[in-house]
Design brief:
The protein has about 180 residues and is mainly α. It contains eight helices and no strands.
């Protein structure tokens, strides 16, 4: 009976992950090889946590930022590239005021990759939000503070202090306490 309980829990956990939209490996590989490089090269300068001021209120460095969108509305509609503002902007659609990137037009194959990514549901790998990883100097100082925290230091065996009234001492800790008492 216990065996079936473990199997049931395992199946339930897998189903829960699928229901939560855990990205599949192929979708993540497509995103990392064909989508993120385009966003990084052409969009992050003006539309990310690392930009000085986020243009149009649009962040493209997270799925949440794309879904929330900016001043013009949501940038993508997963499953529907035709209604996604991102696609209209990168196609330099004459009906749209949005032309991104502003000084150059992306290649047809790049636009097709972004359309395919949106059509497939806009798979985005699960990772820390960009705010957490944006400032590397801050991240390094946090990591340094974690390393230097007393709880993560190697154990030391301090020298037990000598005291005047040794009869009172039963453990080395008593010697430390009595030493402080004698000092005051």
């Amino acid at each position: 009976m216990r065996f079936f309980g473990v199997i049931f829990l395992t199946m339930w956990a897998c189903a829960a992950q699928a229901a939560e939209g855990v990205p599949n490996r192929a979708g993540v590989e497509f995103f990392e090889s064909r989508v993120r490089p385009v966003l990084s090269q052409h969009c992050y300068k003006c539309h990310s946590a690392t930009s000085d001021s986020v243009k149009g209120g649009l962040r493209v460095d997270s799925l949440g930022g794309l879904l929330k969108g900016g001043e013009s509305g949501p940038a993508i509609v997963p499953g529907n590239p035709a209604t996604s503002l991102l696609i209209k902007a990168i196609e330099h659609d004459p009906k749209s005021e949005l032309d991104m990137p502003p000084k150059e037009k992306l290649t047809a194959s790049t636009v097709a990759d972004l359309e395919a990514w949106i059509r497939a549901g806009a798979v985005w790998p699960t990772e820390a939000p960009p705010e957490v990883i944006a400032n590397s100097r801050q991240r390094q100082s946090i990591e340094k503070a974690r390393r230097e925290h007393w709880a993560f230091q190697p154990l030391k065996h301090p020298t037990v202090p000598e005291i005047a009234n040794a009869a009172w001492v039963r453990t080395p800790i008593d010697a430390f306490v009595l030493s402080k008492l004698e000092q005051s």
